[in-house]
Amino acid sequence: MHTATPSPAHDERQALIRQARAVWLDEAATGPAAPALGGATAALEPWITRSWQRCLAAGRQPSDKIDFDPLHATRQRQVREDNQALIDAARPVLAQLTRTIAGTRYFSLLTNAQGVVVEVQGPVEARSPAAPLARVGVDLSERAVGTTAIGAALTELQPVWLHQGEHFFHENRIYSCAGAPVFGPEGDCVGMLDLTGVEVPERPELRHLAARAARHIEDALTLQRPWQLLLRLNWPGTPMVDGAPNESDGLLCLDADGLVLGSNGAARQMLPQPLRPTGQRLHASDLFALPWGLLFDHAQREAPAQDLPLWSGLRVQTLARLRQHHAPSAPAAPPPATLPGAHGLKDLEAKLIRQAVDDARGNVAEAAQRLGISRATVYRKLATRGGPAR
């Protein structure tokens, strides 16, 4: 079997990492934080040195021994029960990952938001150096095992790549790992996905693979919600048809009353969410500048994707579909017989803006603030649809 030979660039980077460790870790133990070191510092991503510094501040030293002891059996069961929804959403994704990385000597781990392993997939031999950590119930947080992709992804809340000497503890220098946080339907971090190899070539591209897989887990978590109406969202011009969502699609789940049950990360980025009191759920009418019952009408008619207005003045391409095996109860506000076309939507948008101006007693600045748009947009929308604001 062909074994890849490390490139000169790889050897140079490893030398810089060793130099950075000598200053940041060995000398930091007896002196102040290291100054910038040009090439040595540039070899490290900033989050790595931040993690090293946290480990030092916690009183840990790179030569310390690590314990990969799992939680007590009772606590393990509790952790798995608490994270069953995450495990169920991740298993098909992890199975696909196992096929994708076959032959690379990497395996996948899923942890909860505290860094405790809740699922392992991939070949890990009992006598492998990876065996101690590739077990359900092992705490792989930064507090327990120092700088790793797991602790970093959960702390930095971004995809990361970590190779050998970039780990804090000497004992972990045999590992290479990529990680990405997993966010739940409410937008909070619920866990992370990790790809780990033992004494393997550097594979920084695995960071992208981990991030992509994490997004698929997030989509599955969103679709687990007991939704009555599912909205697939994307910017106009993106092909959108029935079937599996595009990787870039936003997913927004509504109940029969138009309340938001959950969304994936793409939807949260596309739809600015107004502030609301703690515990109060977001409603479709807070997001879309049209009567929310139209969304149910769109779904009942199985209409193709259509560009719908947001309160920001933007439009988002929306495909609405009802849950097939459970038709929703009638919305509180009965939808009209048909969803208006582009011309009708503009009239409806102008009507809603004018109503906001009327509610503000003609104060355009106040109406614009409530709508989350500029005064210029208010004037322009109304001037083009029936005259300027009063």
UniProtKB/TrEMBL annotation:
Residues 88-220 form the GAF domain. It holds the Pfam family HTH_8. Residues 345-383 form the DNA binding HTH domain. InterPro entries: GAF, GAF-like_dom_sf, Homeodomain-like_sf, HTH_Fis. SUPFAM superfamilies: GAF domain-like, Homeodomain-like. It comes from the Bacteria. This is Helix-turn-helix domain-containing protein. It comes from Curvibacter cyanobacteriorum.
